[in-house]
Every structure is written in structure tokens, then in C-alpha cells.
Write a structure and sequence with these properties.
Strand content: 15-25%
Distance between the termini: 35 Å
Order of helices and strands: EHEHHEHEHEHEHEHEHEEHEEEH
Largest sheet: 7 strands, mixed
Strand order of the largest sheet: 8-9-7-10-13-12-11
Number of helices: 11
Shape: globular
CATH superfamily of the largest domain: Dihydrodipicolinate Reductase, domain 2
Structural class: alpha/beta
Helix content: 25-40%
CATH class of the largest domain: Alpha Beta
């Protein structure tokens, strides 16, 4: 059994990691850490765990926990892990971090977009970006894994094959993405109250959203050159889900002709046909969040606009699952050599 600690266990992502690991045949949860609920029973905070998890929330230090477990999930805000992790602690166990602390390789870009100083930049070179379908081989040996977030996972996977194959003009990409309210976390915020969110929709972080450089960096790796894109997130009144609609100009083939539907579909199939959790939909189908809810699936598809020469790529996932917790467990499985679907082989919930 792999011994596990979860820091930030009372947030939505932390609680979802706990739920998934309870169904994992090879994982044992040893520690549940929450600074806000120290000494309180976990089942009193989340009643879905009543008589399922009989543990109190702890404030054990990360250094002491690292001596007692094999891996630590940190479902914590930006700045927490990079401010406390040291090479000595990393020598004792592996880490799966849910924040952006180790996702962006350029420290200056991280500090500019997140507005905080990075205190362990020496660990950035070995951190592995945990987009499982892209970095599977690197993840196997990772000690420090930067688990991607919901907007980034959906945005990158939706466009990845066409960026990789240079089938779209790299700086023409415009991403509009919708998120359910749970993406903002469990903390009390006036802007996320029911009366503030219900029967409304809004764009936010326009031109400034901090996931922008992360998406650019990863799609730049795919393309083999730097990428500049437009990313605009929107908040909509639902619990879970991310829907990304991405528009780009199709490149021309070497002979000057345009790519056909079958050629683009073939590109998606080359990268995703063997992937358990990415579903390329049938022609004409648009991804919907309700058909991935409660699962680790990503649904993707595309349509060509012959009139404009653009392609519209679409992707949907559950922000708390493939956008956070179940992707973290998927990476956990790869890191420890388990079947990739162990603990996360859930069929989407409808309705």
C-alpha cells in the first residue's frame, strides 16, 4: 500500500482526492491536513464521509509528514508549496502539487502573473508538468509533479494535436472558456454567493488571467516555438464543468490547399485514439459538460468554417475531476506503476 498525505484536505479538490483514494486498492490515506479545521473530525466537515473516514484534521508539518508517507498531495493556494518545500524534504517522499507553483518554468513569468516571489526556483528544473496524456513517460520517474488546473487542461488538450502538427497558425488562437463555480474553491467570497452567481454569466480576468502563460508555454512546447494567444474565462451558474471554445486560423498545406475534415480528424486520432480518457466525438457533435460530469473524461471535437478559413475546436471536462483531483490520481497511478484507471474509472453522471 502506498501511504498518502493530503494537505488542503478540506477544499473541494482535496476532498475529491480523498474520495477517489478511498476507492483505490493500493492507496492508504494516513494524514488529512487542514489549517482551518485542526482537530475537527473530517466526517463533520464533509458529511458524505460520515462513517467512511474516521480521522481528525491535523496540522502536522510537511517535513514530519514526508517521513511517514510515500507521496503528499498539496491541494493548496499558490505560494504554499514553493515557500516551504526544500530538497531535503523532497528526498523523503514524492509530491503532487495542485497549485501553479511548479507549472511555469520561467520564474520571472510566474512572479509577474501571480504577484508573489518564488522561494524554491532550484526545484523547477526537475518538476514535471502533469498533463498525463502528453508527459506520461516523464511522470513515471517524477518526484515533484505540477498537476495542471481545469482551464489549462481543457484548453491545451483541445488544441494540442493541431498545434503539434502545425495545422493551425500558432498565434491566431483565441480561447473562450466557461467554468462552474466550484472552480473558484470553497473559500467564502461575496462574488461567489448564490445570489451573486445565479441567473448570471460574466467574463473575468480579461487579458490578465494567470492561466494564460501556462497555456502558452505548454502549447509552445507542442508547436516547437513560442505561442501567443488570447484567453478569456467566464463564470456560469453551475457546480462543475469547463467548456472551452477555441478559434484559430487553419494553416495551408505545403501545396497551398486547405486541410479537410478527414485530415484534421486523423490528427486527433493519431494522438488520442489510444487514450482511455480522451474522447474525440463523432462528426457534428459538440462537447457538453453534462456528459463528462463526475468523470476523468475529456470530450473534444472540431468544426471547420469554410467561409472564414477558421477552425473551431471544442473541449469539455469536469473541473474537479480531470481538471484537478482525478487527473492527480491518474498521475499518482503513473508515478507508482498502477493501472492508469485505478480509482478513477468513473462513468459520467447524467443527469
Amino acid at each position: 500500500m502506498v501511504k498518502v498525505g493530503i494537505i488542503g484536505a478540506t477544499g473541494y479538490a482535496g476532498a475529491e482526492i480523498a474520495r477517489l483514494l478511498l476507492g483505490h486498492r493500493d492507496a492508504e490515506i494516513k494524514w488529512l491536513v487542514s489549517k482551518s479545521f485542526v482537530g475537527q473530525q473530517y466526517e463533520d466537515i464533509y458529511r458524505n464521509f460520515f462513517e467512511v473516514i474516521e480521522k481528525d484534521c491535523s496540522d502536522i508539518s510537511i517535513a514530519d509528514m514526508a517521513k511517514d508517507v510515500d507521496v503528499i498531495f498539496t491541494a493548496t493556494p499558490q505560494g504554499y508549496l514553493q515557500g516551504i518545500l526544500t530538497p531535503d524534504i523532497l528526498d523523503k517522499c514524492r509530491f503532487i502539487d495542485m497549485s501553479a507553483d511548479y507549472r511555469i518554468k520561467d520564474v520571472a513569468i510566474y512572479e509577474k502573473w501571480y504577484g508573489i516571489e518564488h522561494h524554491s526556483p532550484e526545484l523547477l528544473p526537475e518538476a514535471v508538468y502533469g498533463l498525463t496524456e502528453v508527459n506520461r513517460e516523464k511522470i513515471k520517474a517524477a518526484r515533484l509533479l505540477a498537476n495542471p488546473g481545469c482551464f489549462t487542461t481543457c484548453s491545451i488538450l483541445t488544441a494540442y494535436p493541431l498545434m503539434k502538427e502545425h495545422m493551425i497558425e500558432k498565434d491566431s488562437l483565441v480561447i473562450n472558456a466557461l467554468s462552474g463555480v466550484s472552480g473558484a474553491g470553497r473559500g467564502a467570497k461575496v462574488a461567489n454567493l448564490f445570489c451573486e452567481v445565479n441567473e448570471s454569466a460574466k467574463a473575468y480576468g480579461v487579458t490578465t488571467h494567470r492561466h494564460t502563460p501556462e497555456i502558452e508555454e505548454q502549447l509552445g512546447y507542442a508547436y516547437g516555438d513560442s505561442v501567443t494567444l488570447q484567453f478569456t474565462p467566464h463564470l456560469i451558474p453551475m457546480h462543475r464543468g469547463i467548456l472551452a471554445t477555441e478559434t484559430a486560423r487553419l494553416s495551408k498545406k505545403p501545396d497551398g490547399t486547405s486541410y479537410s475534415y478527414d485530415e484534421i480528424k486523423s490528427a486527433y486520432d493519431r494522438y488520442y485514439a489510444g487514450e482511455r480518457f480522451i474522447r474525440v466525438l463523432k462528426k457534428g457533435m459538440c462537447p457538453e459538460t453534462r456528459f463528462v460530469e463526475g468523470s476523468n473524461y475529456v470530450d473534444v471535437n472540431f468544426m471547420i468554417d469554410e467561409r472564414t478559413g477558421n477552425i473551431i475546436m471544442m473541449g469539455a471536462l469536469d473541473n474537479l475531476e480531470k481538471g484537478a483531483a482525478s487527473q492527480a490520481v491518474q498521475n499518482f497511478n503513473v508515478m507508482f506503476g498502477f493501472a492508469e484507471e485505478e480509482g478513477i474509472d468513473m462513468i459520467p453522471m447524467v443527469p
